[in-house]
Every structure is written in structure tokens, then in C-alpha cells.
Amino acid sequence: MGHKEPMTIATALKLIQKNELILPAIQREYVWKPSQVIKIFDSVLRGYPVGSFLSWKVAPETVGAFKFYGFLKDYSGYDKKHNPVVDIPTDREVIAVLDGQQRLTSLNIGLRGTYAYRNPRAWANKAWSFPERRLYLNLLGEAPENEAGLKYHLAFLTKEQITQGAEDDTKKWFPVSDIFDASEAYQMAQIPVKYGVGNEAKAVEMISLLWQEVHHNQSLHFYEETDQDIERVLDIFVRVNSGGTVLSYSDLLMSIATAQWKEKDARAAVHDLVDALNTTGQGFDFSQDTVLKSGLVLADVGDVGFKVKNFTTANMARLESRWDDISTSLRIAAELLADFGLSGGTLTADSVLIPVAYYVHRRGLTPSYRVSDKKEDREDRAALRSWVLRSLIVRGVWGSGLDTLLRDLREVLRSDGAEAFPLATIEQVMARRGKSLEVTDALIEDILGLAYGGGRTWAVLATLFDHVDTRMQYHVDHVFPQAQLDARALKTVRSPEGVRRYSDELVEELVGRRDLLPNLELLPGPENIGKSDTAPDSWVVEHYPGADEHAAFVKANALPSVLPHDVDSFLDFYDARRDLLIARIKDKLQTQVRTAPTFESRRSTDIDAELGEGDLDD
Fold first, then answer.
1. What's the angle, vertex CA 82, arms to CA 78 and CA 85, rounded to 5?
2. 3-state DSSP assignment of residue 473
3. Which residues pair with 138 in a beta bridge?
4. What string of DSSP letters covers 195-226?
5. 47-50: long-range contacts, CB 8 A cutoff, minimum separation 24
6. Whole-angstrom Cα distance, residue 8 to residue 2?
7. What's the pLDDT tens digit per position in 116-149?
8. I want to staple 573 with a disulfide (CB 3.0 to 4.6 A). Which of 294, 313, 443, 564 is the partner?
9. What is the CA radius of gyration of the chain?
10. Helical H runs in 286-347?
11. Burial of 193 (0-12, 13-18, 19+ CB in 10 A)
């Protein structure tokens, strides 16, 4: 490994621009946040080193064994997260970056491109939630006081923000990309005049300083690896990347699959599938890791762990040959989870997707299964839904020991899942693994302590109330209005004599119970919006005036017969609803283990032998 001549930032970016400095498939994708980009430019302006870089000179005979990607210039969290594929002729060597991609991409975005990140609380699946932003430097002042220790005032801003701030005399926002375009000193000298700061010594100094650091100072130092041994390069790559955003073994799996798949582009196939799954229903947040783990499980690879020894040619070939079927099964599984009312905000364990997809795969189910009105399909979906939601309710099911659990579930589904979802057998095997779904007093107390806004809260409510059609949009609603239990407002309520109506202790008790499960229900979206802050007794009478309708609504939602009208009756209502929920929890969350047939899970070595020796060795 040798040391290359240092180069300027502009030189490196021009090599990137011409695809002479590229990325090997083993690199992960760009993950830096805008704040990290700003921090590296603050370091550049201060003349601080931005770290050394490691490159790999890839000989022509090695080029054909890998796919290569270009650096991102315009990043968007909505639809531009993936690096572009670069076709490299196999008759010339290339320079690939092994360490420094995040920093070089950040410099490329700041000096040449844009960064489109999601506006706060905006829709994750709408393009307009991700406005295009460029990096700007305020030429008239330093950064506001901040914990990051930043000196220079840098920000990613939209065109609209620049226009709206044009009258602010304390700021003159300068697009950093103008520095990259000004490759000659005379071009740099014209910038202060262009932006009307020619008489501002501090502004002129900042522009000159940034130009020096980008075009003149040779601040980027590269070490270069020339060895063509792939194992050595991978080992170097893992070691040098262990100090930044942690390299997961799924990144290695992706890189090796990309290099070894013959017919498909593994990277594109996985990314396309992740994107498709995450736009299902109201949207999910499945990761590359979840999809690749699913691939190992559905391809019946013996060991589903992210271990280098499992990333063999045989396993990658198996994964590629079954990819279309795996993709279809995962898409149907995601649609089923959406039908169960789950989304990125309520799915507390992404791994539950994997056994659902394996069940779909095992039975060869098609999208029509989701909407089939056949009695056996309705009952099967109900059993699957019950298991999914209950597994999300019990803590720890999808935590430690995940790979072992997935293997056991796969074996049950392969043996007993050809005709229907084997609910009882699955629960028995889970209990044997210490992941019982049994309803205990501790679990009941844990459930009753769930609060508004929590992911598990949705799963509990959807499981407890059979009348909820999770394919429709339901909102988690406060039975007694949240607005009437505001601490500040309660402390101002006084009797006719001027005495405070509610003591601090009582206010704390009222507010403490306001957002907990006994005061929550699921209502269709329009009903919840219309309900607003209406007292529950008045609202139910208005919407369900008939005695039978009234009684049916109260029973379906496990509500006491007497509903509260004001704050004074809330605690009695809360205690009564709590008792009703305890009975409902014991009824609806009951495990199937006691009625399960005997099932002895085979040892993993037996399973591996059945799957074939090719699963673990080349």
C-alpha cells in the first residue's frame, strides 16, 4: 500500500465528475445527514484536515469481477438515494474509493449538487415533502451559538427560503457551488462584486478562504492499495470502515451478491424491492437488512445469519435463482401487514415480515388471498393476523435470538404450513424458545400502561376489537377528550368561592391517565375528526341514538355502560374501562399452546443436512 500525491478538493471532484474516481459495489450507500455535511465544510473553511482516504487501483483483469458506481451529486431522501451504475471498460484500470465515500460525496453535494431532505412532519411518500436545497454560506456573520462548535454559518436552503430572506440585513447567503465553478483566481475575485459584498472585508476574506481550500490547498491525502486479491480488499474495507457508520454484514452480502449474480443486478434488485415494500399501504420503513435476511430465509439457506462464511457462491446462486419468487412473496406479505392496519409508525418489529413472507411462499399464495371471501381464507387470515399482532405486543419476541427463532418458524411452516397457518404449533415452538405469547399478569399490566402514540398501542387495540376493519383508516382516539385534561387548564379551574377545584396531586393523576390504554379506542378517521372534543356520553348518543346501536357500540369497544361527561367523572370511567380491558385482554390474547399437538423441532444440523451441503460451503 502506497501513498499518492495529495490533491485539492476541486481535483478530486473533477475526477468524480469524469468517473475516474468511482465506488466499488462493496461500498454502502450515502448515509450522512445535512448537519454532517455542514460540519465538514466548517472544517474545510477552518483549514482543518478532513481525514485521509483509501483508494484501490483496480487492474483491467479485475474490473470485470465487480460492478462500480458513481458518486451522488444530487441526493433526495425521496427518490435519489441510490448511486448510479457506471459502466467501466475492462481494458483499463480504475481508481475505486474504499474509505472516504461519505466525505467525498458530502463535498460533491455541497460544491456541485443539492440535498433534498424531508420537511418536519411532512408525508414520507410525497415528492413535495422533499424540496431541493443547496448549501449556502452566510457572508455577513458567524454561526449562531451551537453545541457542535461550528464557526461558520452554513445552511441547506431552498430557493423560496433564499427569496423570503432577501430583506434580512444580517445575512447574505452565498451558494457554495459558485466557488467550485470559479476555478481561476480572477473568477473568484468577481464573486464579492456579484453578491454586493465587495466592501465587506469579512465577506471577501471568507470567499477567498473557501476558494483557497477548494482550488489551491492540496488537503486530500490518499493511500492506495494495488493488490488484486479480493479477500484482502474486503478485509481492508471492513477494517477501515468499522470506525464510521458501522458496516453491517448485509452490506457485504449486497456487495458479494452484486459481484456474483449472473443475470440480475443484485444491488438494483434489492433497492427496488425495498422501495416497493416501503410504499405499500400507508408506508413502511423496511431496510436492506430485513430484505436480505428475508432472502436467506425464503431461499432456504441453512444459516440465516449475516456471517461472511454464509456468503458463498452457492448461496448467492440460490438467492438469485429464487429472487423473483422471493420478491413476490415479500410484496404480498407487506400488503397483508398493511391490511392488518400496520405501517412504518405502528410496526414495531420489521422482522415479523419474514415468517409471513415464508408462509406466503410455502403455500404459493397470490394477491387474491388477501381479498378472498372463502370461509377458509377468512379464517386463515384471521389466525395470521392474530399471531402477527400478538407477537408485536409481547416484548422481546423479535429481539435477541432472532436467527434461531426464524429458523424454527421456517421449519414449522415448511412442515405444517402447506394448507393453513399452523398457529398452535408455531406458538408452542415459540414458547419452547422462551418467547411465549401467554397472557400473564405482568403482560396485562404492561399492556395497560401503553400510551397514545406508541407502536405497540395500535397492535393492542387492533387485536382487542374485532369490529375494526384494519384495511380502512382508523385513528387512535381518546375516549375522554385529551383537551379537557390539560394540566395548565385544570390548574386554573376554581369553585364559585374562588378555591382551586383540582389539587396538584389530582391534576397529576388525571393527566397521567389521560393518554393510557383505558382511555383509548380506535375510530374510523372521519368519525374521529368529527368527534373533536365532544364529551363521550354526548357523542355516543348523537351518533348511535337507538338503544340497540348504543349498546352494540359500547360492547364492541369494551366501554362501561355509563360514559363520562366531565372531568369529575373521568377517574371512575377510567377504572371501569380498565377492568373491562383486562377481561378483553385475557379473552383475545389467549395463547394456543395448550391445545397444540406435540412438535419436536429438529436440530439445526439436521435441517442443514436436509437443505444440502452447498448451503454452507462452496
1. 145
2. coil
3. 173
4. TT-TT-HHHHHHHHHHHIIIII---B-EEEE-
5. 47/209, 47/213, 47/217, 49/219, 50/103, 50/219, 50/220
6. 19
7. 999 988 888 899 999 999 999 999 999 999 888 9
8. 564
9. 30
10. 288-298, 313-321, 323-339
11. exposed
